[in-house]
Write a structure and sequence with these properties.
The complex is a heterodimer of chains A (about 110) and B (about 110). Chain A is an all-beta fold and about 110 residues long. Chain A has no helices and eleven strands. In chain B, strand 6 and strand 7 form a beta hairpin.
């Protein structure tokens, strides 16, 4: 069974440019998470989707970040405009549902903003 | 106090040693607990769930202490391949569900 797929794997952009990340979760997983992980830190939740509904987005910087999950499957996370401090690894994860179900992570997108 | 705290280490141990990590959490309403393993420049991978009654998987044992609000991970007979960062994640029940990861504990197993 295919795991969580993310693209691109690496992205280098200049500050003030837009960037988008794509995630395809494990088939049948209703819950999708976007995390940001800085060096030496654990993943920090940005937003969680239950099917196509965005919930738990309190930690998403809404002035520059946006996300969508059309049809409750694939998801896109966008940053516009990017800032130097956005350099991090952006991880997507999915689980069968929220609660006690374990999360499965994609390989992440390593973003460098110069 | 951070919601989830881990000693970043590194824990430097010889092969065959037994090593234990703790992870403390501040939200007494937390209901779900997991340990993940993360290799350098890789994504976190689930190591094991932590149940109220404890959980054992081969050389790995996870325990939950609700009274003191911490979970633990014990690794017996350490292997070189156990070298990684071990992340704990804690989630509350009901309402806003935000899984919170610790910063991870680095383990280095040497020959």
């Amino acid at each position: 069974e295919a795991g969580v797929v993310q693209s691109p794997r690496y992205k280098i952009i200049e500050k003030k440019q837009p960037v988008a990340f794509w995630c395809n979760p494990i088939s049948g997983h209703n819950t999708l998470y976007w995390y940001r992980q800085n060096l030496g830190q654990g993943p920090e939740l940005l937003i969680r989707y239950e099917n196509e509904e965005a919930v738990d987005d309190s930690q998403l910087p809404k002035d520059r970040f946006s996300a969508e999950r059309l049809k409750g499957v694939d998801s896109t996370l966008k940053i516009q405009p990017a800032e130097l401090g956005d350099s991090a690894v952006y991880l997507c994860a999915s689980s069968l549902a929220r609660g006690t179900y374990e999360q499965y992570f994609g390989p992440g997108t390593r973003l460098t903003v110069t | 106090r951070k919601e989830v705290e881990q000693d970043p280490g590194p824990f430097n141990v010889p092969e065959g040693a037994t090593v234990a990590f703790n992870c403390t959490y501040s939200n007494s309403a937390s209901q779900s607990f997991f340990w993940y393993r993360q290799d350098c420049r890789k994504e976190p991978k689930l190591l094991m769930s932590v149940y109220s009654s404890g959980n054992e998987d081969g050389r790995f044992t996870a325990q939950l202490n609700r009274a003191s609000q911490y979970i633990s991970l014990l690794i017996r007979d350490s292997k070189l391949s156990d070298s990684a960062t071990y992340l704990c994640v804690v989630s509350p029940s009901g309402g806003s569900y935000i899984p919170t990861f610790g910063r991870g504990t680095s383990l280095i197993v040497h020959p």
